[in-house]
Each structure stands twice: as C-alpha cells, then as structure tokens.
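Can anyone check this?
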Amino acid sequence: MLREVVIADTGGANLASLRHAFERLGARAHVTADGAQIASAERIVLPGVGSAAHAMQKLGAAGLIDVLRTLTQPVLGVCLGMQLLFRQSGEGPTRCLGLLPGEVRSIAATAARPVPHMGWNELEGVKEDALLEGIADRAYAYFVHSYAARPAQYTLATTEYGAPLAAVVRRGNFCGAQFHPERSGRTGATLLENFLRL
C-alpha cells in the first residue's frame, strides 16, 4: 500500500529534501499550507529551518495553528519543526504550539563548541519506542541548530553538546527529531520508515 505524507509549508529550506527522502522510501509526499489537506492527511511532517517567530507567523497567517494543535494522526516535527511543538522558544521569545511542555533555549557557545551546533553527533539514551526501532544507542545523526530543549518527560533520545539536549521526543501522536533525518544516512532513513509505520 502506498503511504502518504503531507509536509506542512512552514517556509523552511528543507521542504524539497524531506519530500525526496520520503519518496526514496516509497511514500508519496507533497507540500501544502492548506489546512483541510493537513487535517485529513494520514501523516503530517512539520519541517523548519530558520526562526521560530517567522515560522509561527507563517503558520498563523495560513490558519494552521489550531489545525496542528488538534491533529490525532502521526505528526513529525523536524529540527525547527520539533522546537515548534514546545510551549515556547527563547528566540524572541516566541509562543509556540504548546503540544509539549517546556521551553526551547539558545545553546551556549564556547570556543570549543561554536553555535550553531552543526555536524554529526551521537544519539544517547535511546528508549524503546516504535519511532526508534532499529536505531542503536550511539547511532550518529546530523544536526544543524542554535536552539534546543532540555531532556524531560517526553524525551526518547538525547545528544551531548556541552550539556544533554533533547534529540528525539514523543508525546502520543506528536513526535520530533532535532536532527535532520533527511541528511542522517541510515539512521535518518530508519526514523522516517518507522514514522511511516506509526
């Protein structure tokens, strides 16, 4: 059976690469800002590259904030899209979707750890969950971000960058990956395959 994914148009730069990543897995994916299409989709991806404030403004202008908050089908937030699932971002500050408790905060830069955090990092403390099936503890994933959430109740895996950061989260049907699965080789492809099976 052909699986379908709708990618919400948040104005980010990773829309095409995410669509191609799903198509490589045999899924049909398309990008839209149409609330009715998103509400009726089998699965939704909330991508994002850029600022939380801009993304929330775009979602608000398209009338998608309430649509996203009431979805009951599987939803995957990617990078900034994961951050938008939280209550607030320290960038601004900006009120986000509030589907996960807590605040996304800026990563502290040091001489040894520049910001943005960019490159391959290990996933640590991977919990058993259908989203992470087949992904081993210490598997590598590709990150590009300047803000992150602290590990908390809904964290499935962390990564270390000066301090532990939430790398994968899940609360019911709402999931998130701080890394870019479309750029993370086999680890990323496995996560996307698992999402298609949720």
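Reply from J.R.: I decoded it. The mean pLDDT is 95.
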